[in-house]
Design brief:
single chain; TIM Barrel; Rossmann fold; Immunoglobulin-like; 9-stranded parallel beta sheet; 17 helices; about 30% helix
Length: about 675
């Protein structure tokens, strides 16, 4: 289990790559870490080539030296298993360990993450290195956390080689038990795809036209599970040798290739790498959504922001720096959403290599002339006063259901239209945050018991078990809001017959006959009782009521006068359906109406103001108020009786947040966000 107390406060640090620098700099690094308030560094992430120079021949001398140096300066270590990037000698010795693309191209040496996750020698080599590191440093006093591999699936989330093909067949045989069951699940009667033996089955490599949809979906499931086996193999070795040292691997938020709800079950603490675009007006929303997901993956437990940039990255077409104040604001956003650790990539900006223009705590200009250094040292000092936040939870009455399997299925080709899921989810998430809500992400199999409102921006794939859970949620008094193209297929990517949305048609009180996919430039208009008409784009459902009441109707095209949005009483609860792509203001208005009907307090905030409520022990609460606007201040009215956190000065009832301003206000009892108003 993960105990944050072992770090004596909020974790603060960075990836440290001393092997990139001469030894005379190491002591200076350790001294500067003390100055910046760093208490943990991630070490050895890309060091396989220097730790095992030839197969089975290890050199730990330099790592011993740096571990001892850091410990002497009061800096703890998050030690990597170093398996993220095999050395060139490995690829030369095992040329078929290099991954293969869907087009049959075998990738070459020169980058990172160059490995097939199924290759026997790769698995043996990773186990050998992990065991050697764990054995050597098990008793080292600096070791506080294990960092397994690095950013699994960032570059290679699928490999189509023969090693993976064999493992895929074995995975399918375990899943289905018989070839007849697989044929039924895959619908192989279509296009003469019937299989007689397991040996006939291949990965969905490049084909003349669309590959079998269920084959593609199962391939995605297999690929996530297959890479997870690498992680659990290393984790088992670490648990055997160092049972008291927790382990993590750094997630990448909404990474398409890996089912993080499944992966999170294998983590002692969930950690995240987050790189929102500083040039975007929505950087705080993009970051906040990833932060809320990360907390949710761990079941509400506090987590570690393992990587971020101090300023600019190097891999976008245009790499904007973080303006002064934005780094602090985004890190307060992470703390408000449950982070226990704030770390960066990397400690010292590199002189050479593909990431040499990626910012660090110590920039190329040196610390004396760097505004980044001034900001990170000031924030390190501030963090030492925020230790009480480590005991806080982030209570939410609203959940957003998200599922990697549905995402994979939605991305499979041969759909009515391309429907990018993340922008859709981001719009619903932004609307909820603009209404002052804490938001949890839940998987279809998650516990819905603690929520008043559950929203499904899209759940294209809906298993019977998910439908049953949603039905029970509404029956006992919950409020459900579903977006369009939801409940279309089952877990095998087969259509639910009897009207689209069939699994929860009784809950929604409707069925969908077909949809009108609007072409670029085409629109429709929705007439909404008591509100101004709104223009809608992209998608319009042809809805037939079966107990639900229309809340808004389309005014144009062949389904004019038919429902666009509906509401249905089911059991003790309410189920809403949104059959089109609403503009943001209309979506926010709808969700506000749902929240009010569910008795959930709300406020209305501009997009650049972020409000999060965290709960301290014994009933106290903290309002985290952030202004993400780069140039304009914002004034707020807040509940009376609060004190500034930390510090304890009376907060009053009004405050002004400067650009990139952050204020925390503590109350001795629960407060309602409805009492927070923009002036």
């Amino acid at each position: 289990m993960f105990d944050i107390q072992r770090f004596n406060g909020v974790i603060y640090g960075a990836d440290y790559n001393p092997e990139q620098w001469p030894r005379e700099i190491w002591a200076e690094d350790a001294r500067l870490m003390q100055e910046a308030g760093v208490n943990l560094v991630s070490l050895g992430i890309f060091s396989w080539a220097l730790l095992e120079r030839t197969e089975g021949n290890f050199d730990f001398g330099w790592l011993d030296e740096i571990m001892d140096l850091l410990h002497a300066h009061g800096v703890d270590v998050n030690l990597a298993t170093a398996t993220a990037s095999p050395p060139p000698w490995f690829s030369l010795q095992y040329p078929d360990s290099r991954p293969v693309t869907a087009d049959g191209v075998r990738l070459e040496v020169g980058g990172r993450q160059l490995y097939c996750p199924s290759h026997p020698a790769l698995r043996d080599g990773a186990a050998r290195l992990t065991r050697a590191l764990a054995t050597r440093y098990a008793q080292h006093p600096a070791l506080k956390l294990w960092h397994i591999n690095n950013e699994y699936g960032c570059h290679i989330d699928q490999c189509y080689c023969e090693h993976c093909a064999r493992r895929f067949r074995a995975w399918l045989e375990r899943r289905y038990g018989s070839i007849d069951a697989l044929n039924g699940a895959w619908g192989t009667a279509f296009w003469s795809q019937h299989y007689i033996t397991w040996a006939e089955i291949q990965p969905p490599r490049r084909a003349p036209t669309y590959a079998n949809p269920t084959q593609q979906l199962d391939w995605r499931r297999f690929s996530s599970d297959n890479i997870l086996e690498l992680h659990t193999m290393e984790r088992a070795i670490l648990a055997e040798i160092t049972p008291d040292v927790p382990a993590t691997t750094n997630f990448l938020g909404f990474l398409p290739g890996l089912d993080y709800f499944r992966w999170a079950q294998e983590e002692d603490v969930v950690s995240l790498d987050a790189y929102p675009d500083p040039g975007s007006d929505l950087a705080h929303l993009d970051a906040g959504m990833a932060f809320d997901l990360t907390r949710s993956l761990g079941g509400g437990a506090r987590w570690i922001l393992m990587e971020q940039a101090t300023s600019a990255v190097n891999w976008r077409l245009r790499n904007a720096p973080k303006p002064p104040g934005q780094m602090r604001l985004l890190n307060h956003l992470a703390l408000a959403r449950g982070a226990s650790g704030i770390m960066f990539f990397q400690w010292r900006a590199s002189r050479a290599g593909a990431e040499k223009f990626h910012s660090g705590l110590v920039q190329h200009v040196g610390q004396q002339r760097s505004r980044v250094w001034r900001e990170v040292t000031a924030f390190g000092a501030e963090l030492r006063r925020l230790t009480p936040l480590l005991a806080a939870g982030v209570p939410a009455r609203v959940a957003l259901m998200f599922d990697w399997h549905s995402w994979w299925a939605l991305n499979i080709d041969s759909k009515p239209a391309a429907l990018p899921l993340l922008p859709l989810v981001a719009r619903w998430y932004a609307a909820l945050k603009a209404l002052g809500q804490n938001v949890d992400f839940v998987p279809p199999h998650g516990d819905l018991g603690g929520y008043d409102v559950v929203v499904l921006p899209n759940l294209y794939l809906m298993a019977d078990e998910t439908a049953s859970a949603l039905r029970a949620f509404v029956e006992r008094g919950g409020h459900l809001v579903s977006g369009y193209f939801t409940g279309i297929v089952d877990a095998q990517e087969h259509i639910h017959l009897g009207g689209y949305g069939a699994p929860i048609s009784d809950v929604l009180g409707l069925w969908v006959e077909e949809w009108d996919v609007l072409l670029p430039g085409q629109t429709n208009t929705v007439a909404w009782a008591g509100r101004d008409p709104v223009t809608v784009t992209d998608w319009c459902d042809v809805i037939h009521l079966q107990g639900a009441q229309a809340q808004a109707t389309f005014t144009d095209r062949f389904y004019a006068g038919q429902p666009a949005m509906t509401r249905h009483t089911f059991g003790q609860g309410q189920a809403w359906y949104v059959g089109t792509e609403l503009p943001p203001s209309a979506l926010q208005g709808l969700l506000g109406e749902v929240l009010q009907g569910a008795g959930v307090p709300l406020t209305v905030l501009p997009a650049h103001v972020d409000l999060t409520v965290s709960a301290l022990p014994e009933g106290a609460q903290v309002l985290h108020l952030l202004n993400a606007h780069a140039t304009d201040p914002v004034s707020l009215r807040i509940p009376d009786g609060g004190v500034l956190f930390p510090g304890g000065e009376a907060a009053g009832t009004t405050l002004t947040l400067p650009p990139y301003g952050v204020t925390l206000v503590q109350y001795p009892q629960a407060v309602t966000v409805a009492d927070v108003q923009v002036l």
